[in-house]
Specification:
Elements: E1 4-5, E2 16-18, H1 31-36, E3 41-44, E4 54-56, H2 60-76, E5 80-85, H3 90-103, E6 108-112, E7 115-118, E8 121-123, H4 132-144, E9 149-153, H5 156-160, E10 169-174, H6 182-185, H7 188-196, E11 202-211, E12 226-231, E13 236-243, E14 248-254, E15 257-263, H8 268-284, H9 288-294, E16 306-310, E17 313-318, H10 323-334, E18 341-345, H11 355-366, E19 369-372, H12 382-390, E20 398-400, H13 404-414, E21 420-424, E22 431-434, E23 437-440, H14 443-448
Parallel strand pairs: 1-2, 2-3, 3-4, 5-9, 5-10, 6-9, 10-11, 11-12, 12-13, 17-21, 18-19, 18-21, 19-20
Antiparallel strand pairs: 6-7, 7-8, 13-14, 14-15, 16-17, 22-23
Length: 452
């Protein structure tokens, strides 16, 4: 059992409860509940009147970080930690790395947007990179489960909020930097600087790989650390690729040797995701030929270009929710289409409003037809979000169906032979956040249960 807990609802008998002050909730208000659930000690910032040992400290958050490093750092340091940062591609790159290392006999766990995975063990997570206590719990759990390595998605917000205190990576990779999270970071410069904070979390002999086709990739170089690139002019150099409906033929070179493989994923952006994985696993110490032999076994994570045959056409569910990701997905399927590309897309509420008109323009410019709908409106008016989206639209090839379930059904209804329906924005998520309530809604489920 882990020693510490900051959520009174999760406290188990014998644990120490840390009363953290959050942005909206103060843990000090839940000390009594934590005691009822079995807490045997409290760490807090003020005197309390309960018949239980407690320790009063100046800042419970800082104190917890030091406790975690002191009590669990020695275990986590025995794991080979791999971190991937960037706007797009983190989930697929990490999940491919997780699969490949396990296929090659290296016991590995994954932590990221779609949860915690290790063999048959799955834990749902609320954030791409969880809070520092959850990170330590998961890493210790991985260690106790026999893992040798953990591959993690590393978000800019996690780095900004210092959710990685005491966590250092043996290998990191940078995928790309495109517009996202500007509601939080305000400027692209701030966003980049947040990503660069990953360089403060490296082991002494850490290796860095980066996408050389992104204009800021050189910023991720760090003195005294091995630095390699992948891309059309990278160390892992793309020579040629051909995308097919369910796979991609790739030719690339490394150290003056040429390699060819068939990736069981489609599109140009998955070429980059594959090379992110390959650069990491190769630098882990695995020969490229061994990686290629296991490549056919790879699968995309849930909600990343998941394809379903419907009405003699294809419906695709993908998490693309940034302008760059939406552009890449639609472009990829335009290259494969024999009929029309119909896109269903929306934008989340209480998040960066600047990207909404950009996404509206991209979707209508690149698709044959678009259905704009709700994503996670949260506490915003869904119709106001849709107004923001269509403010950027310059064509009349769209309609608005605010109800996402109805939008998906309508998209499936109007599909014809050889058409491709792209359902974008939510991917693996099996819920919609309306107000402050999570309501069950799974895009893939809607497609599988479709009846005309």
């Amino acid at each position: 059992m882990f020693k510490y807990e900051s959520d009174s609802r999760k406290v188990q008998k014998g644990q120490t409860f840390i009363a953290l002050k959050g942005l909206t909730v103060d843990g000090h208000d839940f000390i009594e509940k934590a005691i009822k659930n079995g807490a045997t000690k409290i760490i807090c910032e003020k005197d309390i009147d309960f018949n239980i040992p407690y320790e009063k400290v100046e800042n419970t958050d800082s104190y917890l970080r030091e406790l975690l490093k002191k009590d669990y750092g020695k275990y986590i340091d025995k794991l080979k930690l791999i971190g991937v940062t960037g706007t797009n591609g983190k989930t697929t790159s990490c999940f491919l790395t997780y699969q490949m290392l396990n296929n090659l006999g290296i016991d590995t766990a994954y932590i990221g947007t779609i949860g915690y995975y290790h063999k048959d063990d799955f834990i749902e997570l609320n954030n791409t990179t969880p809070d520092v206590l959850t990170v330590y719990k998961l890493l210790y759990h991985a260690y106790e489960s026999g893992c040798k390595a953990v591959v993690m998605e590393v978000s800019s917000q996690a780095l900004s909020y210092d959710r990685l205190t005491g966590i250092n990576y043996s290998i990191i990779s940078f995928t790309n930097l495109t517009e996202d999270h500007l509601d939080y970071h305000k400027t692209m410069e701030n966003y980049l600087n947040a990503k660069l904070m990953i360089l403060d979390h490296l082991t002494k002999d850490a290796i860095i790989t980066a996408n050389s086709d992104d204009k800021v990739y050189e910023k991720f170089k760090k003195e005294k650390h091995k630095f390699l690139t992948y891309g059309f002019n990278g160390d892992y150099k793309i020579i040629n690729f051909e995308t097919l409906p369910s796979e991609t033929n790739l030719s690339f070179s490394f150290n003056d040797k040429t390699y060819e493989c068939i990736i069981p994923l489609t599109s140009k952006f998955n070429v980059y995701n594959y090379l992110t994985m390959l650069s990491i696993v190769n630098q882990y110490g695995i020969d490229i030929d061994d990686i290629l032999r296991e490549t056919s076994k790879l699968k995309a994570p849930k909600g990343r270009c998941e394809a379903y045959k419907i009405n003699e056409g294809t419906a695709v569910v993908d998490y693309a929710h940034t302008p760059d990701a939406v552009e890449k997905v639609i472009t990829a399927y335009n290259e494969l289409k024999k009929g029309k590309v119909i896109t269903i897309v929306g934008c989340g509420g209480d998040r960066d409003p600047k990207k909404r008109p950009i996404m509206g323009e991209i979707a209508t410019r690149l698709s044959d037809y678009v259905i704009f709908t709700s994503d996670n409106p949260r506490t915003e008016d869904p119709n106001k979000i849709l107004e923001d989206i269509i403010a950027g639209v310059k064509k009349d090839n769209y309609e608005i169906i605010e109800n996402r379930k109805k939008a998906i059904k309508h998209g499936l209804d109007i599909m014809k032979k050889n058409d491709i329906l792209l359902v974008l924005g939510k991917g693996h998520e099996n819920y919609q956040i309306i107000g402050k309530e999570k309501i069950h809604l799974d895009d893939s489920e809607e497609i599988l249960n479709y009846k005309k």
